[in-house]
């Protein structure tokens, strides 16, 4: 495959979230949609049309058929979490690179099966955590890494929440114990946990302790929860995730010299420009009557939305593997696995009555 | 004493924080400074001059002499915390109303001695938590109380921190085990705990669990710590307080319908106008490519700084007691005690190896 050929995606299923990623594949300069599979050909046909798939897109009546198509390089898997291990492993066995929707697995044991299959087949794996690919994320990281401006990391707090309506709380796959058993921890907490680990350059905490009194639905699926993470050196992180609160996508980091705040870290207020707020050496004015300076806003523009940048980055890596025989980029499976380890630890802490759980990597 | 006569304050000691409150007494229309006491007459004379005390101010060489002055109605006590119980009790015995700097006591047992002495003498007690008196605080409360705009409270997070320099960390009374043994928990955590309780209309949490791995100095005084609070109904709060991080005065509340954020809740960026940020019914745009609306800023102006409004409110209450025989306002001792109860619980949880501590009111 020539470097200039776009990476050809097969889409497994007609999930709502796949609409956004389908558009992103269309927008990414190095990717194209070549197939979609659904148990209903009719549904997939309508879906392909509604989402502007190329007229050449193959419509299959099964996921297997997508995986068997030799003109598919990569699959995007937006299926319910409980189905990830089956279909991601099968995709890897069929030599398809895997872009996997989050939460990536019900636990790290399942994820390891997926990652091992991808690795042994020389395939790229990436989880679909879109905000990682926004240029704002790199700009924020520059600030956090600046020992003069931010200093030493001391604390992080993140909230990711959205308010499920009656229909969502009764019927959405995110609250079904047989489909997305991790509930709000997997769907919302994933983002906060990733953000916290991103802040520590993926240094895992020593212990994770769930906050007391999460909320559950009747089937025992988490609707809201939180946790504290500690690194045994004074750094602390806390997060709250919920299907029962107004949309919040907050991330606040306190360093010894500066602070960083962002209020839309997962999905920005605007597609083409995203803000974050920094302040350095904040101190008290005369008689401590006021504090100075006020935080300043930094806007980071982007021509392509973050989800298209994610597809472009994934496709770059796939293109290098196919075109130049490169090795898969290990960063992506590594940080996905670390995120899952913390998700698992929060769940374990809840199950153990909010006892601290040590993270073993 | 006629209603229109200003309340006459005696100041115990020449603490730095007393400069700010001295100015506030001067600014408040219903208060005046009538005496100051210090072990050094010379120091107090210079201090009175530097801080623009009225020329009629009595300069005493002891705190006792201030308490014995019949022309002193009220005392402001900015002494180290370990001295509060002695001097606040003595002040109350001498029939002086008490404006007490925070942290108010080393523990609730000590505070109860103070509160009982004030109550049995029919005196007003108030802790010097200035931000409570900013008109912004009332405006924020309006939003939080609005079931249509904010809905049901789900989570709160607060950070209060400032970076102590070498001199502070070695010599400030805030890090001395014999003076302010509560360290960062008393000096900084106090504000976050008060803010959390303010959010719940002072409904105490059922349990308080300290975050693991606080930082201590060699004398065992807390330099940074945090805690999670839970109400057994899904509401959670977390806070982080520190002498080891850049100034942060954050308060973020998530409701089922709205969010509130403020980044300078203890001391505003500007003396005469303070912002807060609200957003209601935040939701995803088409294909979840963005979220709408962005938070909106509300500016609350004030002619008098919050510390002068605190003095004015305290003096109003004292004036009513003296002029009209009113009873002291119980709100202030009540919320001070509740704040202390949570401070005590955090400390107990740290001492018990981060076990949850039940709050018994």
Annotation keywords:
six-stranded parallel β-sheet; homodimer; 18 strands; globular; 361 residues; 10 helices; ten-stranded mixed β-sheet; alpha/beta
Average per-residue pLDDT of chain A, rounded, comes to 96
Q: Into which percent range does the helicity of residues of chain A fall? A: 25-40%
Number of helices of chain A: 10
Radius of gyration of chain A: 21 Å
Uncertain stretches of chain A: none
- Please tell me what the overall shape of chain A is: globular
β-sheet strand percentage of chain A: 25-35%
Tell me the structural class of chain A: alpha/beta
Strand elements of chain A, count: 18
Largest interface: A-B, 72 and 72 residues
The largest sheet of chain A, given as strand count, sense and whether it forms a barrel, is: 10 strands, mixed
CA(first)-CA(last) distance of chain A: 37 Å
| SSE pattern of chain A | EHEHEHEHEHEHEHHEEEEEEEEEEHHE
Q: What is the oligomer described by this structure? A: homodimer
Describe the structure.
Two copies of one chain form a homodimer. Chain A has 361 residues and is α/β, with parallel strands linked by helices. Chain A has helices at 16-27, 41-50, 63-68, 84-93, 108-120, 135-144, 166-171, 183-199, 306-324, 331-351; strands spanning 7-12, 31-37, 58-60, 74-77, 97-100, 125-127, 153-163, 207-210, 215-216, 222-230, 236-242, 244-255, 258-262, 273-280, 283-284, 291-292, 296-301, 357-358. Chain A is built from ten helices and 18 strands. In chain A, the strands form three sheets. In chain A, strands 7, 8, 9, 10, 11, 12, 13, 14, 17 and 18 form a ten-stranded mixed sheet that branches. Chain A is globular. The mean pLDDT of chain A is 96. Chains A, B: InterPro entries: Gfo/Idh/MocA-like_OxRdtase_N (IPR000683), GFO_IDH_MocA-like_dom (IPR055170), NAD(P)-bd_dom_sf (IPR036291).
